[in-house]
Structures are given as structure tokens and as C-alpha cells.
Design goal:
Layout (H helix, E strand, L loop, with lengths): L15 H22 L3 H5 L4 H6 L2 H15 L2 E12 L2 E10 L2 E9 L5 E7 L18 E9 L4 E9 L5 E7 L10 E2 L2 E2 H11 L3 E5 L2 H4 L10 H17 L4 E11 L1 H12 L5 E5 L6 H15 L2
Parallel strand pairs: 7-10, 7-11, 11-12
Antiparallel strand pairs: 1-2, 2-3, 3-4, 5-6, 6-10, 8-9
Helix pairs in contact: 7-8
């Protein structure tokens, strides 16, 4: 296999130790896919940590690669498309180019530089965003706002119903990783759709660009959910309190995925919230979820 790694994304502000660590993972990833291409599955399986190995047998790794090879042929090159830290994990997005097409993978490494998750990313489509049927723009207005903390300013959208007065308001909080204000994934815009649906029922909302997409350099090293989620969610709640027409006794927070997991903590920090709404909020460890999601995505490729 021709070994080619394109380093598309290395943050210049990372420390030399962090950068060297990522470079090590780039090399490990290249070696891992080389072993898979050479059908040395036992050696490749050794790249995974013990927890993963205890739940996913080596034969599953072989079955996955055989299925991909039957469809796409032999692997030719691997390209590192992006890298980031996510909590205690290092996450790489990898494009594998095969004879008859390509397949994108996500590799998650722990601090011991062992793989704890291998995802097969669904292929991107050329589909355009389609506005949902319930998004009747005659019923609501959208206004640009800013969610502001001491050192950060995030653009957002305040969506308010046109005819309602003294209306409820919901602050929308993203899941993990970089995200725009609409929660865009492919042609889907989950948070935008939610805002439209709520507004059509007389409920206002605030959604905003996540800090990780505007200030990525700040997340190259160690950080916590305080920097990634909590501070900005609290600032958005403060903005919601001052929105003209809002019923301050009907102030809510809706969190998706990581945002849902943190919603109870946010509620303790903003006791005037009247309720929280959890969307796909995890109640298990990240390692367990990575394994389950990986198995699910693998099943989609069959």
C-alpha cells in the first residue's frame, strides 16, 4: 500500500508535546491501515485497548474489512483529514482511498495511544437542505444576536413567534465537537428545524455557534465541559432572560447528546430555569458509546 498522509489540520498553537503526540498517532494510523490492507488482522487487533478487545472480537474486525474490500477493492492510500481532542481522547478523521472508491473512518485514541473506537463514517451525499413542512416563516421572525462571555462572542439566532406575547423561550445546546448554530450534519440542520417547529407553536428559541468551531485553538490542549459547553449555555440563558416578550417563568433549556447529558448540571447553575429537555442524552461512558456506535455504523455498510 502506498503510504501517503496529508496533514490537513494541525493547530499552530498546540504545544510541541501535543503536536508530537498527534504525529505519533498519524503514524500509528497509517501502520494500522497497512496491516489491515495486508490482512494481518491479529497484528492490527493489537492496536486496540483491552476494553475494546473485551467487547469486540478480532473476527469482527476481519469481517468489517472483508466487507469493505469486497465493495471497494484494495486500499491504496490513507489521508488524515482532521485531528482534535475530545475530552481525554484524540480523534482522527481518516479517508481511505480504495481501487473502486473511498471510505472515511474515525479513529479514537486514548492517552496510552491505543485505539478505543473505530467508526465507519457514512458517505456524504450531495443532497441540499430541505426546509421542513412545518417551518412556516409567516409565523415567526429570526434575528441575529450574540452570546457573550468575558472573552468570547458567539453569533446566534433568536427565533420568536410573530403573534404571541409573553411567550416561552428555549435555549438550544449542541452535542460534542465543533458545531454551527443549526447543528448541521450533511444536509440536516437539526437545531434550525427545532427552532422553526417551536416558533410555529408560539415558543421562542436561541441557538448559537459553538465555541469549539469559532475558537478551535483553545481546545488543542486540556479543557473541560465548562469551556466547551457550560459557560456559553449560561450566557445564552442570560440573554434569553432579557429578550423582550419572554415570559421569565417559562425559561427552558434543550440539550442534545453532550448538551443533554450536561443539562441537569446547567440547571443547577441557572436555578431560574423552569425545565430541561434531553435529546439523545447519554447515560453511559464515552468508551461504551463509541463501541456501540461503531457497531451500528458498521452494520449500515453491510
Amino acid at each position: 500500500m502506498k503510504k501517503t498522509i496529508l496533514l490537513f489540520f494541525i493547530l499552530l498553537s498546540t504545544t510541541s508535546a501535543f503536536s508530537q503526540g498527534m504525529l505519533n498517532l498519524f503514524g500509528k494510523s497509517e501502520d494500522f491501515f497497512s496491516l489491515m490492507s495486508e490482512e494481518k488482522y491479529t497484528d492490527a487487533y493489537g492496536y486496540f485497548d483491552a476494553t475494546f478487545q473485551s467487547k469486540v472480537p478480532a473476527v469482527k474486525l476481519q469481517e468489517m474489512w472483508t466487507s469493505i474490500s469486497e465493495k471497494l477493492g484494495k486500499l491504496q492510500t490513507v489521508n488524515i483529514q482532521s485531528s482534535k481532542t475530545q475530552g481525554d481522547l484524540f480523534v482522527l478523521s481518516v479517508e481511505g482511498k480504495f481501487v473502486n472508491g473511498s471510505q472515511n473512518f474515525t479513529l479514537a485514541y486514548n492517552k496510552a495511544e491505543k485505539i478505543v473506537g473505530l467508526f465507519l463514517q457514512p458517505k456524504a451525499t450531495a443532497m441540499d437542505y430541505i426546509k421542513p413542512s412545518y417551518a412556516d416563516t409567516s409565523l415567526y421572525t429570526e434575528k441575529e444576536v450574540y452570546v457573550t462571555t468575558e472573552k468570547h462572542k458567539l453569533v446566534g439566532i433568536l427565533t420568536t413567534p410573530k403573534k404571541a406575547v409573553n411567550f416561552p423561550v428555549v435555549v438550544l445546546v449542541h452535542g460534542s465537537g465543533p458545531s454551527d448554530m443549526d447543528g448541521t450534519v450533511g444536509p440536516n440542520k437539526t437545531l434550525k428545524d427545532l427552532a422553526a417547529g417551536l416558533a410555529s407553536k408560539g415558543i421562542a428559541s436561541i441557538r448559537y455557534v459553538k465555541r469549539t468551531i469559532i475558537y478551535p485553538n483553545e481546545f488543542a490542549g486540556t479543557f473541560t465541559v465548562k469551556e466547551e459547553v457550560l459557560d456559553d449555555a449560561l450566557a445564552a440563558i442570560a440573554l434569553a432572560r432579557t429578550t423582550p416578550g419572554v415570559n421569565k417563568k417559562q425559561l427552558y433549556l434543550m440539550g442534545h447528546s453532550l448538551g443533554g447529558m450536561l443539562a441537569p448540571r446547567i440547571a443547577t447553575l441557572a436555578p431560574d430555569l423552569n425545565g430541561v429537555i434531553l435529546l439523545a442524552a447519554p447515560a453511559r461512558t464515552l468508551t461504551d458509546m463509541i463501541i456501540e456506535q461503531n457497531n451500528y455504523i458498521y452494520a449500515l455498510t453491510k
